[in-house]
Write a structure and sequence with these properties.
- By secondary structure, the chain is an alpha+beta fold.
- It has three domains: 117 residues, Elongation Factor Tu (Ef-tu), domain 3; 58 residues, RNA polymerase II/Efflux pump adaptor protein, barrel-sandwich hybrid domain (OB fold (Dihydrolipoamide Acetyltransferase, E2P)); 115 residues.
- Strands 1-8-12-10-9-13 form a six-stranded antiparallel barrel.
- It is rod-shaped, with a radius of gyration of 47 Å.
């Protein structure tokens, strides 16, 4: 008995091939509880420069050195600054003595000297007046010339004027300096002390200190180079915070919240997961940077975000590519500092 197939073989092959193609095109169901994004490790950096100009005398650190707050990193040549400080100190000392002299007033010896000068001029005046009276009587008897009488009278008047001037000088010596003169001296001393403080600050600015804990990334200048406030000496990578810079597509923006938990993985440590959380989401959109390695996102508008990450073993480095997985099914935690969350 000859049994014919229900469908020709070419049709069966075509149907089977179509079914396989359709099956291949079907995307697996996506996990809506997690969102995977890509980015790079980023850190805060500080370009450290002297707040003064001068030649670099020494630099005490190298690239890769760890530093602590207040640690001396570099110094300028201090010769000119130290000389300026000494000059300012001497000026302050001189002004202090001048003010102390004014406040102390006249010394007893100066008062006695002024009194003696007044008494001497008074005696001279009495003698001049007696001479004038004598010549006046002689003139009445025609024994003295009128010119001599006039000269004696003028000398007596001049002597009396000198006595009055001496008495005023004596009163000034007794009274001492004017309050206005003391105020002027006090203001001058304040100005000299301000100049001294500025000289000390300039000398202190010749020493470059670490502002925060971190790692020296670049050593830009060397001893002998000319430094200025506009010229960085060192670049310091700060340890305070470390994050992964990611870019959230607009279609996923509504699912991402600040404080959301995250897991971070890197190619350098593929079997290790780092804890993290979303700390910042940009309020403005931008085109996806070329550094993002997902081809389907390169032409989209995205929002920059920072996922802070705990790095207890100090394994993450600036610019390291990272894969970030956000836990969308977990409620965001209240914002907290990196040290608090990483200590949990």
């Amino acid at each position: 008995m000859n049994i014919k197939p229900l469908l020709p073989i070419p049709i069966l092959l075509a149907v089977g091939g179509g079914a396989y193609w359709w099956w291949q095109k079907q995307e697996p169901p996506q996990d809506t509880s997690r969102l995977t994004l890509y980015g790079n490790v980023d850190i805060r950096q500080a370009d450290l420069a002297f707040d003064a100009s001068g030649h670099v005398a020494e630099i005490r650190v190298q690239e890769g050195d760890r530093v602590q707050p207040g640690q001396v990193l570099a110094r300028l040549r201090p010769d000119k600054l130290e000389a300026a400080l000494e000059a300012a100190q001497a000026t302050v000392a001189a002004q202090e003595q001048a003010l102390a002299k004014l406040k102390a007033g006249s010394r007893p010896q100066e008062i006695r000297q002024a009194r003696a000068q007044t008494d001497a001029l008074a005696a001279k005046t009495r003698m001049a007046r007696i001479t004038y009276q004598r010549l006046l009587k002689m003139g009445q008897q025609r024994l003295a010339a009128p010119e001599e009488i006039d000269q004696a009278r003028a000398a007596a008047d001049a002597a009396e004027a000198e006595v009055r001037a001496a008495e005023e000088a004596y009163a000034l010596v007794v009274a001492g300096p004017r309050a206005e003169d003391i105020a002027v001296a006090e203001a001058g001393l304040a100005a000299r002390r301000a100049e001294l403080a500025l000289a000390r600050e300039r000398l202190a600015d010749a020493t470059l200190l670490a502002p925060a804990p971190g790692i020296v990334r670049d050593r830009i200048l060397e001893p002998g180079d000319m430094a200025s406030p506009q010229t960085p000496v060192l670049t310091l990578a700060l340890n305070a915070s470390l994050w992964v810079r990611i870019y959230v597509p607009e279609s996923d923006l509504g699912r991402v919240r600040s404080g959301m938990a995250a897991e971070i993985r890197t190619d350098s440590y593929p079997h290790k997961t780092y804890r993290g959380w979303v700390g910042f989401i940009s309020p403005t959109a931008e085109f996806t940077p070329k550094s993002v390695e997902t081809p389907d996102l390169r032409t989209r508008l995205v929002y920059q975000a920072r996922v802070f990450v705990c790095n207890p073993q100090d394994e993450l480095r600036l610019g390291m590519p990272a894969t970030v997985t956000l836990a969308l099914d977990r409620p965001p935690e209240p914002d907290a500092g990196s040290s608090h969350r990483c200590a949990e």
